[in-house]
Protein: Peptidase M4 domain-containing protein
Organism: Actinomadura craniellae
Amino acid sequence: MPVAVRTEPPIGTVVPEEVAQRVTQSFRGGPTTTPAAGPRPSPVPTPLPMAAGHRLLIYKQDPSVAELGIRTVFVQSTILNGPADTRIRTELPGVTPVGRNIDGDFIFPPNSPQFDCAHTFAVVRETLSMYERHNGGRPLPFAWNSGSNTDPITVFPRAGIDANAFYSRTAKALKFFSFTPPGASRPVMTNNSFDVVTHEMAHAILDGIKPGWIGTVDNPPQTGGLHEAFGDLTAIFMTLSQADQAEAFVAATKADLHATSFLPAMGEEFGAAFGLPFGLRNADNDLRLSDVGNEVHDISQVFTGGVYDILADVFAFELSRQRQVKSPTQILMEVASSLCKLLFDAIVASPRTGATYADVVGQLVRKSAERDDPPIYRTCILNRFAVREVVEPPVSLDELMSGNMDMANPHYTGGGDAKRIPEVRPADEKSASLRAVQDRSGCCGTMQMPEFRVVPADRLATRGPLTDEDILAAELAELRESFGKLDQNR
Ligand SMILES: [Zn+2]
């Protein structure tokens, strides 16, 4: 495939040396202010945090997104040299384990391999922590975890040369590669992309929650679409869980989620390298199921776009309701967190294999009612997915299509019964996205892994390690049958 190369903005991690030095210097050693001379009053005890934590530096978005740069994250759990903790290890031969400084922090100059280790670990850790909070603070297992297996996931920030990044269950790993597009002077490091790292970690997390969803065998294209969409939506929810990014987004767009911005664009740098103007995919799209066939990456954008529209609708409603008492940034962060939790709960409640968009939309509606969201939340969920031809419209969509939704009214239903939870049915049972085999040619590296293309959904749904024998099981069975016939003919 010919690859169009975009040279502006520059490709690759570009952090000027003087900035890199200044950033790292500010964290090194000693107090930043000189204590005043004179007698010290006897100190009054102050409450201290329950546990110590560590500071790590991360790239906020892709390095190619000009307005955003590097920031510190504070992780309040124990991180060992590696960086490593009970759930996540980091592996870069010749570099790891990367050590903490005297303050217990992982602070390194940007562009260095040590920075990449700390950054990738931090983003993976934060992604897992976000969903564990939505899980009531309980740990979320990886697909191989059980009472007798607490193996962590291993993160490879610089796994080699390839235009790829993936999660593998057999390897219990996340691998991030780098590549230099033709004509470019610097490589694209996939681990430097906040979107790519959160997307791939989301595959690992969803595989732990619903191990039966990731394979192509016995699952319709929509189940694959849920996996890809979960990755992209996780990147958006992670971005909006960080106050400085949410603030930058609100300011850049004047609180309009449909204005052009960095938020709905995924993997900008990765996309720029392939000549795609909106990154690898665009969450703020208008795709309907009839616009896509059975290609899973395209299908995923229908679901991602639906949830993004709901985020915009609910934000508009809550902004009108709470603008006198909260800042737009605070409202946006709360709405995004609440929608992320709703999606998480809906996925947990969906079928163990073969889940469809209508299954998850039905659970979104049910869970929203169970937690007493205003009826307008359900109206937005159903309307947006009805427009995208995912579910049957419960009421006429005339008001939505003519822009007449009463977005300030918490009881708005567009003509439906606010007290009744409507039946959610797929709009088109014959859609290729429900019946065809999965075409994953446009998906990320995870979805292309052989282990997810040959192992039956029921086997994948069984918690525990996945081995090469599982991948070869069907072929081995064929061989045994064939060799058995030889025995009979002897
Ligand atoms: Zn993916």
Summary: Residues 296-322 form the longest helix (27 residues). The CA atoms of residues 288 and 388 lie 4 Å apart.
